[in-house]
Amino acid sequence: MEFSTRIIHEDNIEDGSGAVMSPIILSTTFERGEDGISYPGGYFYSRYDNPNRHALENKLAKMENGAACVSFASGLAAATNVFQSLKSGDHIIIPDDTYFSIRSILDQMFGAFGISYTLVDMTDHAGVENAIQPNTVLIWMETPSNPSLKITDIEAIVRIAKKHNCFTVADNTWATPFYTKPTDLGVDITLHSTTKYLGGHSDILGGALIFKETNERYERIRAFQKLGGAVPSPYDCWLLCRSLTTFVARMPIHSNNAMQLASYLETHPKIERVLYPGLPSHPQHSVAAKQMQNGYGGMLSILVKGDRAAALQLAGELKLFTHATSLGGVESLIEHRKSIEGDASPTADNLLRISVGIEDIKDLIADFAQALEKI
Ligand SMILES: Cc1ncc(COP(=O)(O)O)c(C=O)c1O
Q1: Looking at residue 256, which CATH number applies to its domain?
Q2: CA–centroid distance, residue 214 to ligand 1 (Å)
Q3: For the chain, what is the domain count?
Q4: Contact 83, 115 (CB under 8 A)
Q5: Predicted confidence pLDDT, tens digits, the chain (375 residues)
Q6: Which domain holds residue 354?
Q7: Same domain, 22 and 128
């Protein structure tokens, strides 16, 4: 069966009532069997596992062609659990333009435990290899990156990692399995902030790790999930499973809209530059064309001609694009990244990040046209 059919029909919960849609099992505890020892339903306490979480994890593992999925209460809880699986003295390679909170986690939480990192431009393969130290254990990827939309050649980085016995993580939040499947390209762990496109409606916070193999690291992270307890609620799991059923319907609209908006903005005299991997002008367009299927995703960034004030003014003049953080919902959002990332961030002052929603593209372009006239 094809991907879209399986997401709808497999891994649903049947409670004997004949309900067509899965129920939500809110119970935190489950009854023991007659022997006083066993748990005939397969569950005993919801921090350990819950039917809705189980269904979600099975669906996400299938979507990414992985062997198993471990879900979390947020994307950053998922990232934190990967770092918790390391040991003191380990070193990591991180993209120089990684989502800024990944660096914050390492600086504020893991530095004290002796875990160090080096920031590297992931498009410079020799630079990645040169940054590997005897204690390097992990190479982290994020493609397209947030917010500069750099594309990492996943297969090339996996080759380097394997040569040096490192494991790999790819944050696939922006590409989603609709456009890229890191597992198929050799990545050990695929990370998602399910808050974004998988949730799709800006109303669920969640995260997930999908494992290529159920190896020792998987077992450790699974144990940390159950013991640490940063787990998603049954309701969030249920809502996310619901969102996954429309995933393949939503994604092409995001991408077609983003491509058209990027093409429009690229020719506009008040826009200095558009960063979108689908544009031939994008520096890694050929890597994106090789690695991404079905399109190039719904995210783009623009550099507005002028300074921070011009960028903020443009964001303020838009009527359909809400000036707010986050991405991946059906509604279009725009954000001035530097003001959320802080002054130390390398993000340009005139950069606006756009999450292109699934509204009619004519309305989205008309909104930009009226806003650009005013600045
Ligand atoms: C690429 C990427 N990874 C991870 C995260 C963190 O996810 P969450 O906010 O669900 O913790 C984000 C959030 O914006 C993101 O854009």
Answers
A1: 3.90.1150.10
A2: 24
A3: 2
A4: yes
A5: 888 999 999 999 999 999 999 999 999 999 999 999 999 999 999 999 999 999 999 999 999 999 999 999 999 999 999 999 999 999 999 999 999 999 999 999 999 999 999 999 999 999 999 999 999 999 999 999 999 999 999 999 999 999 999 999 999 999 999 999 999 999 999 999 999 999 999 999 999 999 999 999 999 999 999 999 999 999 999 999 999 999 999 999 999 999 999 999 999 999 999 999 999 999 999 999 999 999 999 999 999 999 999 999 999 999 999 999 999 999 999 999 999 999 888 899 999 999 999 999 999 999 999 999 999
A6: 248-372
A7: yes
343 is catalytic: no
Out of 53, 59, 150, 196, pick the active-site residue: 196
Which ligand 1 atom is nearest residue 325's CA? 14
Residue at which a domain ends, from 196, 223, 244:
244
Residue pointed to by tokens 């790999």: 168
Residue at which a domain ends, from 224, 244, 264: 244
Same domain, 223 and 273: no
The CA–CA distances, whole Å, from 265 to 59, 270, 319, 364 equal: 37, 9, 17, 11
Place of tokens 């198993």: 68
CA–CA gap between residue 290 and residue 292 (Å, rounded): 6
Cα 284 to middle of ligand 1, angstroms: 23
Report how far ligand 1's centroid is from the alpha carbon of 33 (Å): 41
Do 136 and 85 belong to one domain? Answer: yes
Asked if 96 is an active-site residue, the reply is no
Q: Atom 12 of ligand 1 has which residue's CA nearest to it?
A: 193
Distance CA 57, CA 81 (A): 16
Indicate if 24 and 79 belong to the same structural domain: yes
Q: Are residues 122 and 268 in the same domain?
A: no
Which residue among the candidates 99, 117, 179, 276 is catalytic per the annotation?
99
pTM of the predicted structure, to 2 decimals: 0.97
Statement to judge: residues 145 and 179 lie in one domain: yes
Distance 78 CA to ligand 1 centre (A): 10
Indicate if 153 belongs to the active site.
no
Is 47 known to be catalytic? yes
- Enumerate residues lining ligand 1, CB below 6 A: 74-76, 99, 142, 146, 171, 173-174, 193, 195, 205, 207
Contact 311, 305 (CB under 8 A): no
Whether 117 and 129 map to the same domain: the answer is: yes
Q: State the distance from the centre of ligand 1 to the C-alpha of 370, rounded, in angstroms.
A: 31
Burial of 364 (0-12, 13-18, 19+ CB in 10 A): buried
Same domain assignment for residues 198 and 278? no
